[in-house]
Amino acid sequence: MTILPQNIWEEGLKMSELLKGEKILDKRSPHLLSFWPYYLFFLYYIIVNSLILFALDDIVAWVEGSLISVIGDIGTTIVLLVLWWAIIIIPAIIFAILKISFRWMIFYFLLAVIGTYAIARLGATIEQLLYVTVGISVVGILLTDVYRRSHEYILTNFRIITKLGFFGHKVRDIFYSKISDVFLEQGFLGTIFDYGTIIPVTPSGIGTGEDSAKVAIGVGGAQKVGPTEVGVGIGIEGEKSVKVARGRSSFVLYGVPNPSQVRKLILENMAKKEAAPYLERTVELLEELVEKEEEEEEEKSKKK
Fold first, then answer.
1. pLDDT tens-place string over residues 232-266
2. Together in a domain, 40 and 142
3. Dmax of the chain from CA atoms?
4. 178, 263 in Cβ contact below 8 A?
5. CA atoms of 94 and 105, how far apart (whole Å)
6. What pTM did the predictor assign?
7. Domain contains 52
8. Which residues contact 237 (CB under 8 A, 6 or more apart)?
9. Residue 165 lies in a domain
10. Which secondary structure element, helix H or strand E, spans residue 106, and what is its range?
11. Of the ranges 158-172, 195-209, 229-243, 281-295, which is most confident?
């Protein structure tokens, strides 16, 4: 086990935050490929919007040659606008559902609304909206890399420190004595390029989430009784949930290189902390026995 120089704290946490007797054992940041879904998300917008820009004249010609040409230029603009909405909104919805985060869906929805307003009121063109979308996506890739680099995971002989310094400051301390389980998750790419996510789970449930499946069945009917109609309905609903290891990238060791080595280091320190209370209790009992023997000897010497 290699102990890192203590001046490494100057890069992240302050020296004053190092506890008495605490030593740094390892320091990690997420692997470049661990954020591949985010890079791919923005890369999709760059590629698709660039392809539409390249073939925009042909698309406009096709639209104008269809039945929509009866409506004129307004019809062409509406079709292109609907196409642009579908291109940016549908992937954002899928990404939001998969990542359980709706911020990007809201962002691209607002972008679509602003773009529509710009065309309707400010005289903007579809071509300009496509260029703006490409530009925003390029910035998104750069910000994703900055976000990845802003994660720091520090392992000491006392605790695990997870830190995020992206447009703010988040720090989580997890003492080894509070960890009940350590979960390692590696996907297909993680197995090939040797990176993975380590989730320390505490007895209170920190580091876990729930996956649930819900089924609802309803039956209803109506019967005419005299001048009125009477309806009856029956509904049955069932839900099953499973607790799973899960956490935000700022609260777990997300996508760290060589995760097996990191997990082993955590388990070794957990084992040391688990044994410590028993050793302390043993020392206390020995001290009590020694004190008792000393007292007995003093009493014997007094009697003599």
1. 555 555 544 444 545 677 789 999 999 999 999 99
2. yes
3. 124
4. no
5. 9
6. 0.71
7. yes
8. 214, 215, 216, 217
9. no
10. helix 103-121
11. 158-172
